[in-house]
Design brief:
The chain has 9 helices and 13 strands. It has 260 residues and is α/β, with parallel strands linked by helices. It has a single domain, classed as Ribonuclease Z/Hydroxyacylglutathione hydrolase-like (Metallo-beta-lactamase, Chain A, 4-Layer Sandwich). Strand 8 and strand 9 (164-168) form a beta hairpin. The longest helix has 14 residues, at 213-226.
């Protein structure tokens, strides 16, 4: 039987004033500047919370000039989630803004695609343009977690729980995965960096950093097929998410919105 989940986007940071061609390949750099938001996602089902991505650490955010509003952990705690109770964390990919803060979740296991681990520890990382978005300490931390039996590897599309599954996309990174979740409004897809902005997905535009451009475009098609409609696709970094969806509660305005 398929399980219903509540699903939330939790905002923890933002970056404003980016030239359009920094976010959209081929965009006119003289257009208005764009901003992006940084999110993690929370899925609440009958067996407890499932967290999707971990954001960046305060140290990494500061080093990279990102604006930290609150830590991802503070956002989860504001939602009533005890960090020690989190048993499952889905890592959509190993870019720095999705995989920090390991140490805050002592009882969690991390769900990752086989291809992402191979990608981040193999010859592709000899290309500075590709490795720029990874933090070597965080990649090494994931390797250590493998040796501690805390990483669950997935090869392609797999159901983790009834009503919640991961789906390999590639494109942005070799092992990028999205998350499909069954909710009261149907199947939604947490696209993560398969689509940074709504514009990427709807207009088939590409974020300038990618492993495989054709894979990015194929990912749009797969995400569209997985979701009940284009409106059921949640992009990974679009500030509009906080405008479109209602606050999780009055106390959580500007912190978390409910996606289901």
């Amino acid at each position: 039987m398929t399980t219903l989940y509540e699903v939330y986007a939790i905002k923890y940071g933002h970056l404003d004033g980016r030239p359009p061609d920094a976010l959209i390949e081929g965009a006119d750099p003289h257009e208005s500047t764009l901003g992006i938001s940084y999110f993690i996602w929370l899925c609440i089902g009958p067996d407890g919370p499932v967290v999707v991505d971990l954001g960046f650490s305060e140290k990494t955010g500061t080093k990279r000039g990102r604006q930290v509003i609150r830590t991802p952990m503070a956002g989860l705690q504001a939602m009533g989630v005890a960090l020690a109770d989190v048993k499952d964390i889905i890592i959509t990919h190993l870019h720095y803004d999705h995989v920090g803060n390991f140490d805050a979740f002592p009882n969690a296991r991390f769900h990752l695609q086989d291809t992402e681990m191979a990608y981040t520890t193999g010859r592709d990382m000899t290309d500075e343009r590709k490795r720029h978005f990874f933090e070597v300490d965080e990649v090494c931390a994931m390797v250590r977690h493998v040796y501690e039996d805390r990483v669950v590897f997935h090869a392609g599309d797999e159901e983790l729980f009834p009503g919640l599954s991961v789906h390999h996309l590639g494109g942005h990174t070799a092992g990028l995965q999205c998350v499909r979740v069954f909710t009261r409004r149907g199947w939604i897809v947490l696209a993560s960096d398969a689509a940074h902005l709504y514009r990427h997905f709807h207009d088939r535009l590409i974020f300038p950093n990618y492993h495989d451009a054709d894979g990015v475009l194929a990912g749009y098609d797969k995400v569209r097929d997985l979701a009940d409609s284009p409106d059921h696709v949640i992009p990974g970094h679009d500030p509009k998410v906080m405008e479109i969806y209602p606050a999780a509660s009055e106390d959580l305005a500007d912190i978390a919105v409910r996606l289901d």
